[in-house]
Design a protein that fits this description.
130 residues; 434 Repressor (Amino-terminal Domain); single chain
Length: 130
């Protein structure tokens, strides 16, 4: 991380990944998981669901969902988080392309936010295919 002075105060510029900045192992995966959890939180709020209702839809106990909302996602896989978003009416696309460097990286790109249409939400509720 680059350091510079601003008004006499030394400031470190972030790499864009707070988990990497503080030296946590698996920082790329943690950033992906946190982004998915943020989208789950937005979806639940936009749909007006209680934690209990959201947990039922996503196949998670309310206590686990409460933990997710508090940032405890260490015991939940990226796949399960993506499944939760699917069950809340969101599509997930995974894009694979050659890396510019010898080792690639993980990245989460979120499309513009919109509330899913009720019919679409129902159709995808418990199915991986439309």
């Amino acid at each position: 991380m680059k350091k510079r002075m601003i008004d006499g105060v030394e400031v470190e510029m972030s790499s864009g990944n707070v988990f990497a900045d503080i030296g946590l192992p698996g920082a790329d995966k943690l950033k992906i998981k946190s982004g998915l959890v943020i989208e789950i939180t937005r979806a639940v709020r936009n749909l007006g669901l209680s934690q209990e209702e959201a947990g039922r839809r996503m196949g998670l106990p309310q206590s686990k969902l409460s933990g997710l909302f508090r940032g405890d996602f260490s015991n939940v896989s990226e796949r399960k988080l993506m499944d939760c978003l699917n069950r809340l009416g969101y599509d997930i696309e995974i894009k694979v392309k050659p890396a510019a460097k010898s080792v690639g990286h993980l990245m989460l790109a979120i499309a513009c936010h919109r509330e899913p249409e009720p019919a679409r939400r129902q159709r995808h509720l418990y199915s991986e295919k439309p």
